[in-house]
């Protein structure tokens, strides 16, 4: 990209003050309309792409309002991964006449060329406003990334209604990948790597854990999702951040192996004596909320000892708990709300509290506060 005195299509020098941005570009056609694909240096993104519509009414905007809570996380992703971050293209509309000079008159060469955009042009992002804001924040912390580039798809602005329809069409079929699949493919986060390795090292868990989906159908042969095991294992190892990944995987594998053998129904699913769907229907211990609570229990045990034999002794009473969903006297208001399993943070704590009490473990101050509030609500 360069800034130069723009030239009209005839090739003559432009008049005084007619300056613009010049980009290499590829021209295409969608629905009978021309569009252009080019590259912008990151340092130009905050200057050229506007997002100033937050104060307008929804009917006067061409995209959603900015969720500022998302920006620091995305920006930190760029800063933490200078040699590995990946961003998809921004999509924007431009409200000026573009001058496209192709390299040839026919074939592929006629679609490749140089695009000139007047400096007075106004760009509005149709898709990628959070990426744009994150790039701006990351540049303040790491300005050296400014010469790197991001692909941009440019459409000629044809008014608010067309921009609103573009936003709708761009997001109509966008589906966020399942959390389990994201964890399965994540090569950066230690917790994701540990959760995967725990499954891979355990033949039982390989048989019980769904690796791709984050929701289990009634006929699924799996008891848990990888995302549920990830959350539980992350809680289990929360106070063990000085461990190497191999040590963390070893501890977590030992812990979940002990837990597995304390639930006869899990073993029966593994040996094909009962179906996973029947167990999930009849028992709460086959749901992520209990797995998370067991991770909380394990965290306490790891703080006390690293000896699996002692864990097995402390955890033995788990097999004496009535985990039936029909046991509403115990689980309603804790793991269940209106007869349905609830995954809220409060319900996780209340479920953890039941297990702690059954195992003779004291509650933490925060757990006691939640427990007291729950009991006041019952009275």
UniProtKB/TrEMBL annotation:
It comes from the Bacteria. Coiled coil: none annotated. CDD domains: dndB (cd16412). NCBIfam families: DGQHR, DNA_S_dndB. This is DNA sulfur modification protein DndB. It comes from Amycolatopsis vastitatis. The lineage of its organism: Bacteria, Bacillati, Actinomycetota, Actinomycetes, Pseudonocardiales. The gene is dndB.
């Amino acid at each position: 990209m360069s800034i130069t005195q723009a030239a009209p299509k005839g090739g003559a020098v432009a008049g005084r003050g007619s300056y613009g941005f010049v980009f290499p570009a590829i021209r295409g056609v969608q629905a009978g309309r021309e569009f252009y694909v080019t590259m912008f240096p990151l340092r130009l993104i905050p200057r050229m792409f506007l997002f100033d519509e937050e104060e307008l009414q929804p009917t006067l905007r061409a995209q959603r309002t900015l969720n500022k809570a998302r920006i620091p996380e995305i920006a930190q992703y760029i800063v933490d991964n200078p040699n590995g971050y990946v961003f998809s293209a921004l999509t924007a509309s431009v409200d000026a006449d573009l001058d496209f000079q192709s390299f040839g008159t026919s074939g592929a060469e006629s679609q490749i060329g140089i695009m000139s955009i007047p400096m007075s042009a106004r760009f509005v992002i149709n898709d990628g406003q959070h990426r744009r804001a994150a790039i701006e924040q990351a540049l303040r912390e790491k300005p050296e990334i400014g010469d790197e580039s991001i692909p941009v798809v440019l459409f000629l602005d044809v008014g608010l209604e067309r921009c609103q329809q573009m936003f709708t069409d761009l997001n109509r079929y966008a589906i966020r990948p399942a959390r389990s699949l994201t964890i399965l493919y994540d090569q950066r986060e230690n917790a994701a790597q540990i959760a995967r390795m725990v499954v891979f090292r355990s033949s039982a868990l390989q048989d019980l854990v769904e690796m791709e989906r984050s929701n289990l159908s009634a006929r699924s042969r799996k008891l848990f999702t990888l995302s549920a095991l990830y959350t539980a294992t992350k809680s289990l190892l929360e106070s063990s951040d000085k461990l190497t990944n191999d040590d963390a995987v070893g501890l977590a594998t030992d812990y979940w192996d002990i837990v597995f053998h304390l639930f006869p129904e899990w073993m029966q699913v593994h040996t094909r004596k009962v179906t996973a769907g029947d167990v999930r229907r009849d028992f709460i211990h086959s749901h992520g909320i209990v797995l998370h609570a067991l991770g909380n229990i394990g965290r306490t045990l790891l703080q006390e000892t690293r000896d699996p034999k002692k864990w097995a002794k402390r955890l033995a009473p788990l097999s004496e708990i009535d985990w039936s969903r029909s046991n509403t006297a115990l689980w309603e208001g804790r793991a269940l709300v209106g007869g349905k399993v609830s995954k809220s943070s409060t319900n996780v704590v209340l479920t953890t509290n039941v297990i702690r009490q059954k195992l003779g473990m004291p509650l933490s101050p925060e757990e006691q506060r939640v427990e007291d509030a729950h009991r006041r609500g019952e009275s």
